[in-house]
Write a structure and sequence with these properties.
471 residues; alpha/beta; twelve-stranded parallel β-sheet; 6 helices
């Protein structure tokens, strides 16, 4: 307040006034007109020119080295104008720079406003799509799926959120419709129709996910590099054929139940990222990885249970990284690796249980990399290596236990590589090598001083390689 004394030191007040001066000047210049501004700039330029000319004239009279003594007034004036023009050029550059900064700031503000408007629009679309998904009518749900997918295509910043909603829909409790409708009451028929309609919506959603992952990766449209969490979902059909799982993509089917219908991963390319089927249950229908290529990334079926239906890796190619079936249980149905190519990386059946059904490696080729059955238990069913070719790499049965069932190597070819049975146990299972086609580089067994154990059948003139072991 006026007249109020203060104990504040003088220097903060001085600095405050110094900071206030530029703002006061800009405010005053902003209030005057353009003509006045131009006139002031011209007056300032003339003043600077006059000052520089005077200094140069004094310098010429005082014998400054930079100004010759016989320099005329006109020459001094020209020199002064040149210096002034240079200063004006610098000022012009500063003004242009300032103008550019102002333009950039204005553009940033416009972009920010457009972003806010886009975000508002996206949120409105998101709410409308979510409301459709929550509808009791299958047709509305189907519309909601396509609306949410279209929003994900357009909304880069919200794409993962949209994907999460769609995957969350597939994780909702679901009971597939029965395969028969005989002797149904009207109420049961209505319930069956509702479940069938719900199934169509779910299949359409899986087809849609496959479509987005099937094309070449494009950040502006495709959904590569995102997370798809389908853990615990019930899947009874869907087309994921030809999808490309690239670096950064994560697909989680942990605990999922494949109960029927056909789910296709045929010709899929696993070139990076991660795909997990931990503890998944394959109880019916058909799941196909026929012609799929496993070249990079991680694919795991750890502790999965194959109890029915068919899972096919027919002519699949395993060329890199790791595919794991460790701890998996094969108790029913058929799992086929017929015609598969193992040419690199690692495929692990470590501690897997082959207790029923049929696991087929008919016509498979093992040319490189490692396939491990270490600690696996063969307690039932059939495992067929009929016509398989062991031409490189290593196929290991270290510590495997053969207690029941049948393991056949009929017409197999052993031409290269290593097939060790270190410390394997043979009790009652039938492990049959009697009708192999080629026995050039036979498997490696431990020393059997009393002959092969019961159930292990070797060729009549096997020349089998045995090793001495010590406990």
């Amino acid at each position: 307040m006026p007249g109020k004394e203060t104990n504040e030191p003088w220097w903060p007040r001085t600095r405050r006034r110094e900071r206030e001066w530029p703002g006061a000047i800009r405010g005053w210049l902003g209030r005057v007109g353009l003509f006045t501004n131009v006139a002031l700039v011209l007056l300032l330029g003339l003043t600077v020119t006059a000052g520089i000319t005077t200094v140069l004239w004094a310098g010429a009279g005082g014998g400054l080295a930079v100004v010759p003594a016989n320099t005329s007034v006109l020459d001094l004036l020209k020199l002064g104008l040149t210096v002034t023009a240079g200063i004006g050029g610098v000022v012009a550059l500063v003004v242009a720079y300032r103008k550019q900064r102002l333009n950039e700031t204005a553009e940033q503000r416009l972009d920010a406003a457009a972003t806010r408007e886009d975000t508002k629009l996206f949120n409105e679309r998101f709410g409308a799509a979510a409301q459709l998904l929550a509808s009791a009518e299958p047709a509305n749900r189907l519309a909601g799926i396509y609306a949410m997918a279209g929003l994900a295509d357009d909304w880069n910043n919200g794409r993962q959120t949209c994907i999460n909603v769609l995957c969350g829909y597939l994780r909702l409790p679901y009971t597939p419709p029965s395969d028969t409708t005989e002797d149904f009451t009207p109420e049961q028929s209505a319930e069956h129709a509702e479940r069938a309609a719900h199934r169509q919506v779910r299949h359409a959603l899986l087809d849609l996910l496959g479509e987005r992952l099937r094309t070449e990766p494009d950040p502006s449209y495709t959904w590569h590099g995102y997370t798809f969490d389908l853990a615990g979902s019930t899947i009874d059909g869907g087309n994921l054929a030809g999808i490309q799982v690239t670096e950064g993509t994560r697909m989680n089917f942990e605990g999922a139940a494949f109960t029927g219908g056909e789910v296709s991963f045929s010709r899929a390319r696993f070139a990076g990222g991660e795909v997990f089927f931990h503890r998944a249950e394959f109880t019916g229908g058909r799941v196909s990885f026929s012609g799929a290529k496993f070249t990079a990334g991680r694919v795991a079926f750890r502790n999965a249970e194959f109890t029915g239906g068919e899972v096919s890796f027919h002519r699949a190619e395993f060329t890199g990284r790791r595919v794991s079936f460790s701890g998996a249980k094969f108790t029913g149905g058929e799992v086929s690796f017929s015609g598969a190519e193992f040419t690199g990386g690692e495929v692990a059946f470590v501690r897997a249980e082959f207790a029923g059904g049929r696991v087929s490696f008919v016509g498979a080729r093992f040319a490189s990399g490692e396939v491990s059955f270490s600690g696996a238990e063969f307690t039932g069913g059939e495992v067929a290596f009929v016509g398989a070719r062991f031409a490189g790499g290593e196929v290991s049965f270290h510590l495997a236990e053969f207690t029941s069932g049948e393991v056949s190597f009929h017409l197999a070819e052993f031409t290269s590589g290593r097939v060790p049975f270190y410390r394997a146990e043979f009790t009652s299972a039938e492990v049959d090598f009697r009708k192999v086609a080629v026995w050039d580089v036979p498997p490696i067994f431990e020393n059997f001083p009393d002959g092969p154990p019961q159930g292990l059948h070797l060729p009549a003139q096997s020349g089998v390689k045995q090793i001495e072991t010590s406990d």
